[in-house]
Amino acid sequence: MKRAHRSTELIVGLVRMLRAELRGRWRQARRAVMVLLSVHGLSPAQIAELLECDASTVRRWIGRFSHHGVAGLADRPRSGRPRIGGPRLLARITALLEQAGPWTVPKLWQYLGRPKLSPPTLYRRLRIVAIWRRPELVARGDPDRWRVVAGIAARLRE
Predict the structure, then answer these.
(1) What is the residue extent of each domain of the chain?
(2) Residue 154, burial from CB neighbour count under 10 angstroms (0-12, 13-18, 19+)
């Protein structure tokens, strides 16, 4: 496969854009790494060996980048049923988690107005916007209970 030759300024700009993409979703980051390694002279076979994937996969993403730029590294729309719980639900979950309180999946489901989601689906959506940490169990008679609960609430707001 031919490598696209570009001017130094263009390569520097592309490297900056691709490095910014590394902060995005991990799938796009992996694809950006493939392109960056290609720009630095590695062959698709070498990149495939480094990233533990097939060389044809590397060639596909380099080709899509050559034709479409950074936008070519994104996932294309897939067929099938649309996702349940889109960006609005994620925004509502984020807003709820900013409020203090020990949140559980059933409690979130109730506060969200009982959306038509199964608990596992709600949990998956929750994992997109929050890191779930099991709170420490604290005995009700513990004199430091409120300090521990405040610490848990602070961690949930991180």
Answers:
(1) 8-73, 87-157
(2) exposed
